[in-house]
Amino acid sequence: MFIGEYQNSIDEKGRIIVPTKLREELGYRFVMTKGLDRCITVYPMKEWEKLQEKLSTLPVSSKEARAFIRFLTGGAAECEMDKQGRVVVPPHLRTYAVLEKDAVTVGATTRVEVWSRAMWETYADTDMNDEAMAEKMVEYNI
After folding, report:
1. How far is CA 9 from the centre of its chain?
2. Distances from the Cα of 52 to the Cαs of 46, 60, 86, 100, in angstroms?
3. 3-state DSSP call for residue 129?
4. Beta bridge partners of 86
5. How much is the pTM?
6. What average pLDDT does this structure show over 26-54?
7. Would the pLDDT of 84 be above 70?
8. What is the chain's alpha carbon radius of gyration, rounded to the nearest angstrom?
9. Residues paired with residue 98 on neighbouring β-strands, in sequence order
10. Residues with Cβ < 8 Å from 111, sequence gap 6 or more?
11. Exposure on the CB side of residue 113, measured as CA atoms within 13 A
12. In the chain, what is the straight-line distance between the N-terminal and C-terminal CA atoms, in Å?
């Protein structure tokens, strides 16, 4: 399970260092794609394969299903971590997530999210208030 919040940065070659605590479970080969809320979502290969299986069951006759499949798979890139724990974030994903220099890597149970620090701070300030979270915990039976 991926947990935690880690501050990091993108270097001049478009690389980010994967936090040490996330490396083993993520593995050296994984998939990066567009995430919701303008972040990048990183899936270990086994989780990506599970997601692909679910996507393959969606009806191609549904416009919304086709759009969702395109969103997730169209921007996806198979990536590899180097021996120093760095990975090149594809340019199209850096643009999508507005990643320029400062980043935040967040563990999100079965996946990892990479955010621009500014986008994460805006999200955390506006979308993560205690009362709304408490209501969702009740709604989700947590």
Report:
1. 15
2. 10, 14, 26, 29
3. coil
4. 17
5. 0.91
6. 97
7. yes
8. 16
9. none
10. 2, 41, 42, 43, 44, 47
11. 19
12. 17
Distance CA 95, CA 98 (A): 5
Query: What's the one-letter identity of residue 39?
Result: C
Residues 6+ apart with CB under 8 A from 26: 2, 18, 42, 44, 81, 112
What span, in angstroms and rounded, lies between the C-alpha atoms of 61 and 47? Answer: 25
Amino acid identity for residue 117 in this structure? R
Give the containing element (helix H, strand E) for 40.
strand 40-44
Q: How confident is the model at residue 127 (pLDDT cuts 50, 70, 90)?
A: low
CA distance linking residue 96 with residue 126, whole number of Å: 20
Q: Residue 115 and residue 63: Cα distance in Å, rounded?
A: 29
Say how far residue 139 (Cα) sits from the centre of its chain: 24
Retrieve residue 24's tokens.
Answer: 């083993």
